[in-house]
Amino acid sequence: MSTSISARSTAVPRLSAAELRRRWRAMVDDPLLADIPGKLELNEKGSIELTPPTNRHAFQQAFIVQALGKLLPEGTTFTECSIETEIGVRVPDVAWASPDFTRRYELQTPFPSAPELCIEILSRSNTGAEMREKVDAYLAAGAREVWLVAEDGTVEIVNETGAQPRSVFGIVVTLSK
Q1: How many C-beta neighbours within 10 Å does residue 36 have?
Q2: Separation of alpha carbons 81 and 94, rounded Å
Q3: Is 159 inside any structural domain?
Q4: Can you give the CATH number for the domain in which 104 is found?
C-alpha cells in the first residue's frame, strides 16, 4: 500500500517592514530572549535566527572595532546593531557610521537603513548564498560597502559593483591568522 501526499504551497509570506519592526521591538523587550548568548536576527518571514559565538569570532570583532576606531575616528563603530533590510532585521557583526548617519537615526532600533560600512565575520556555518543575500541586503539598505571577514582573517570588500581591491574609506585592516 502506498500513500501519496499532495504538495501544497506552505510558503510563509514576507512580513511588512512595520510588522518586522514590531516583532523586533517585542524581541528586544522579551526577558526570555535577554539572556540568550549569541547574535539574534529576525528573517523576512518573522523567524528568529541565532548564531552562537566563538572566541575567534569575538577576537576578530574586537580587533576590527579597535582598528576602525583608530582609522575612522570621526564616525561611530557599532557591534551588532540592528538594521531593517529586505530580508528582515539583520545584525552585522561590526558596522561603522558617519556622524551624519548617527545624527539622522540616533539610536533607533532597528535602524531604518544601513550604516555606511557593514562587516560580517564568517563562520563555518555560513553559506555562500546566505552571505551574498546579506551583502545585497545591506547594500540595498544603504551601506556603501560590506566586508566579509574569513576565518583566516582575509577581508573581501564588496560594494554595489561587486568585489573591490580596496575600501572606498581609504583604510586597510589586516587581521592575523
Answers
A1: 12
A2: 8
A3: yes
A4: 3.90.1570.10
How far is residue 89 from each of residues 8, 44, 117, 157, 166, measured CA to CA in Å?
28, 7, 16, 22, 28
Task: Report, in angstroms and rounded to the nearest whole number, the Rg of the chain calculated over CA atoms.
Answer: 18
What is the grid cell recorded at 4? 501519496
Residue 151 lies in a domain: yes
Q: What Å distances lie between residue 77 and 34, 59, 140, CA to CA? A: 23, 16, 20
Q: How many CA atoms lie within 13 A of 134 on its CB side?
A: 25
In a domain, 173, yes or no: no
* DSSP per-residue codes, 24-85: HHHHHH-HHHHT--SEEEEETTS-EEEE---HHHHHHHHHHHHHHHHHSTTSEEEES--EEE
Task: Please tell me whether the overall predicted TM-score, pTM, comes out greater than 0.85 for this model.
Answer: yes
| pLDDT tens-place string over residues 56-71 | 999 999 999 999 999 9
